[in-house]
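Example S7 (structure tokens).
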């Protein structure tokens, strides 16, 4: 299952790990940087890591033989964009840097003036 994310991210990380009981656990954040991960159903709906892992009564699967509303087809590092709502449980999944209309696009916020 770790190959699922590695194929999407070019091998730079894993979106899932397999527990000793063979249950797949999808991660909510990347290992490096702690960026939020978002999962996508075949019908275009967003999915949180908890529901992708089968929590909250979810029937999510990566198996193509399931209903497209439960078929997980991809995962993305959710760097920026408006918050998405999990199609199953309604959890709001926020992006790392917010949406395009957020009032945090001042380029000087993270700069430090050098003296000398």
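Recovered sequence:
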């Amino acid at each position: 299952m770790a190959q699922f994310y590695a194929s999407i991210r070019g091998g730079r990380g894993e979106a899932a790990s397999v527990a000793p009981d063979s249950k797949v656990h999808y991660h909510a954040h990347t290992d490096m940087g702690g960026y939020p991960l978002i999962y996508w159903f075949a019908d275009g709906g967003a999915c949180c890591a908890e529901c992708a892992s089968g929590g909250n009564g979810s029937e999510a699967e990566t198996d193509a033989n399931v209903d497209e509303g439960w078929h997980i087809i991809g995962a993305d590092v959710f760097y920026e964009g408006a918050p998405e709502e999990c199609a199953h449980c309604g959890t709001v999944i926020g992006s790392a840097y917010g949406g395009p209309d957020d009032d945090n696009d001042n380029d000087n916020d993270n700069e430090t003036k050098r003296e000398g």
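Notes on this example. Residues 19 and 110 are 39 Å apart (CA to CA).
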